[in-house]
Amino acid sequence: MKTVKQITLAARPKGMPDMSIFRFDDVALPEVKTGELQLKGRYYSVDPYMRGRMNDVKSYSPPFKLEHALEGGAVAEVVESKDPAFAPGDLVLGPYLPWATEMVVPAATVKKIDTNLAPASYFLGVLGMTGLTAYIGLLDIGKPKAGETLVVSGAAGAVGLVVGQLGKHLGLRVVGIAGSEDKIKMLKEEYGFDEALNYKTGDLSAQIAKACPDGVDIYFDNVGGDVTDAVVPHLNFFARIPLCGQIAIYNNEEPSVGPRIQPTLLTRSVLMQGFIIRNYPTRYAEGIQYLAPLVKAGKIKFTETFVEGFEKIPEAFLALFTGQNTGKMIVKV
Amino acid sequence: MKTVKQITLAARPKGMPDMSIFRFDDVALPEVKTGELQLKGRYYSVDPYMRGRMNDVKSYSPPFKLEHALEGGAVAEVVESKDPAFAPGDLVLGPYLPWATEMVVPAATVKKIDTNLAPASYFLGVLGMTGLTAYIGLLDIGKPKAGETLVVSGAAGAVGLVVGQLGKHLGLRVVGIAGSEDKIKMLKEEYGFDEALNYKTGDLSAQIAKACPDGVDIYFDNVGGDVTDAVVPHLNFFARIPLCGQIAIYNNEEPSVGPRIQPTLLTRSVLMQGFIIRNYPTRYAEGIQYLAPLVKAGKIKFTETFVEGFEKIPEAFLALFTGQNTGKMIVKV
Question: Enoyl reductase (ER) domain spans which residues (chains A, B) (predicted)?
Fold first, then answer.
């Protein structure tokens, strides 16, 4: 029996996770049975939402199990196939593959990807959950109308970059919020954002007022916390808030406290909708059809931060919480 | 020229309003011109939302003007008509009539009411803004499905009573939250609520857990503040929150601070929607058609608290904030 490396959840984090919650184990690879595939991981996605699954609480995804392999979106290569639809060498995408160097999984849990359409790693990003999250959140919940103002927090993150460019494509005024001067510059110069604001320098609320002279019609929220507190007072009547992420407070041990938003949501007839892309499976094909030509035409550019080596997955994950990535964070093996 | 009494906004309140913000003035009644009506007030509505209009801030209704008459929904009798559609003695409903004993207004700003359908005061309540607010909030935003659990805060208030009974009519499990044992008893015994909880006694969150063994699918929020904090942890996946009122914090001078709700809304894909009935004018006729037969059949009972005398309007308004009313508060002249 072949032995492979896996990354085990050794402990549930309290607050900000660190390396101590991960353990590298040698595990035996089971035999491949009918309908199964043996895969070798090629690209592993690390995503902020995984922090939520590390807690043992009710959420949209079931909690990771202690003493089991962590899991996430990954692109893998078929090594051995006992399913007629797959052959060795095929590249496949799985939304919940274990963090292991190799793995045996039911063929039904993965899909072949077409690398003629885009590079393999894009299926973890702009043509995967990231792009689809931007697409559903902005179009279905944001309901944009040309000429409106869109503010996106976490604008230099994987989802934020797509949201902003989709917003420009749809004729919106797009204002991004991010946490460094390099990111701000990149958003404006490379990604066509109308304005980009650094929440770490100066009064964010005043910056928003200046950047959004007509107020905020859509606030696509990836971060929550103080950034949201600064945006809420600038919401227009009938504004929409696709609630996509809350990275600012995922690591808080105590429930986060802040100004209540309900008075503003009430008096301005604002809609706020939490959503998670896995609840929209019937829309994936449509979303990819919408996004792929925009990506191919260069209207939606996509940035990836690559980290090399299976053993770097934990570090790459932890780096998400200090904003070290630009665009999609991918571990390449 | 005839002189009438009016209630003037003499000062903007800070925090909880008191009598000092009101002033009774004698004002001259203008002549009735073509297309206008002279009216005598019969029933005046006092509503929590008016507190918001006393502040000089952006809200769904424009602020009341200092040194002008306050205004609100009222039923009045036509004294003199210079519009062919109205005759002396007609009873009319105006959503924004001045707080004056008599008034001259454009005929287009009022509508005749049909007292064969219901008593005149009902057009300020269950067949007026109150009932329509319950109808739109519960049906359009709450999107109830039979068998789901509805929690309504401010359950013994005018809107809450209608929401709860509509919920029962639609096959929901209905749990009301109110602030006295008398109200709790009334909700269960007279209005058919499945459970009613007193937020002033004991641990509200534990009471909700017990009363809602399957969690909360719709939270119709009239009050906000601590009551909402107790409800949010019990929300189910895909729960809906029609955000109708925030009476708990209307009078706060400082922005109210509390646990952030976004993490729960995000991880459980919850929708929250602020709304105000004046933005749904095209739905009024439909709503009244829906409600009137239910009221006539006794399926929706409606309670009114009457205060007698024009000069009691300020007191009646202030009493809303100490929960002295049950159902709709009306000043009868």
Answer: 15-331
